[in-house]
Write a structure and sequence with these properties.
The complex is a heterodimer. Chain A is an all-beta fold. Helix content of chain A is 0%, strand content 53%. In chain A, the strands form two sheets. In chain A, strands 2, 4, 5, 9, 10 and 11 form a six-stranded mixed β-sheet that branches. Chain A has a five-stranded antiparallel β-sheet with strand order 1-3-8-7-6, with no helix packed on it. The termini of chain B are far apart. The chains are: A mainly beta, B mainly beta.
Chain lengths: 114, 112
């Protein structure tokens, strides 16, 4: 079946550098996308979302880019800090954020090197 | 505002037993969704409740069930537990359908 996937299971970056985490999705009917951060022993934490009528959205130190042509989603984290170490999941949904459940990718483990 | 709470946080059961997990949503949130997280399958949607009604269900066997109460609190039940049911069970809540979901810390279930 169609699902959301991520390109890399692990991404290692230097503290202070910018991080880019990528995600490819295959369901062209998806119109809502979310990035979650999950730290060890905790539930996923909402970071930022974007709807399909946008191609870019910015938050505090984070930017999500959506390329519907190639069905690609990315999360950019500026000036990566040790507290950014976590597993990052992209998720997609058709028709909004909740009605049909979210489909999650496998996750990218972001490792911050000092 | 308090976040999503789940109880218990940890649970050990044996095969064949049943288990009930509880989720209390953020104040004002009326939609509750449940997810199973395992290393092999990742995060998978179980079901969603809104106004005490199941609105959608993922691809899980009938051993997995749930309900929602009038105060929006939700419970999920797994009967006849199998080893493969060992997982982190996460609850996510939102104000309504098709809105951003916020997750609780999860209940880690180990089936022996």
């Amino acid at each position: 079946g169609e699902s959301v996937g991520l390109h890399l299971p692990t991404l290692s970056v230097q503290e202070g550098d910018n991080s880019i985490i990528n995600c490819a999705y295959s369901n062209s009917a998806s119109d809502y996308f979310i990035w979650y951060k999950q730290e060890s022993g905790k539930g996923p934490q909402f970071i930022i979302d974007i709807r399909s009528n946008m191609d870019k959205r910015q938050g505090q130190r984070v930017t999500v880019l959506l390329n519907k042509t190639v069905k690609h989603l990315s999360l950019q984290i500026a000036a990566t800090q040790p507290g950014d170490s976590a597993v990052y999941f992209c998720a997609e949904n058709i028709g909004g954020g909740g009605a049909d459940g979210l489909t999650f990718g496998k996750g990218t483990h972001l490792i911050i090197q000092p | 505002k308090a976040g999503v709470t789940q109880t218990p946080r940890y649970l050990i059961k044996t095969r064949g037993q049943q288990v009930t997990l509880s989720c209390s949503p953020i104040s004002g949130h009326r939609s509750v969704s449940w997810y199973q997280q395992t290393p092999g399958q990742g995060l998978q949607f179980l079901f969603e409740y809104f106004s005490e009604t199941q609105r959608n269900k993922g691809n899980f066997p009938g051993r997995f069930s749930g309900r929602q109460f009038s105060n929006s609190r939700s419970e999920m039940n797994v009967s006849t537990l199998e080893l493969g049911d060992s997982a982190l069970y996460l609850c996510a809540t939102s104000y309504g359908l098709q809105e951003t979901q916020y997750f609780g810390p999860g209940t880690r279930l180990l089936v022996l």
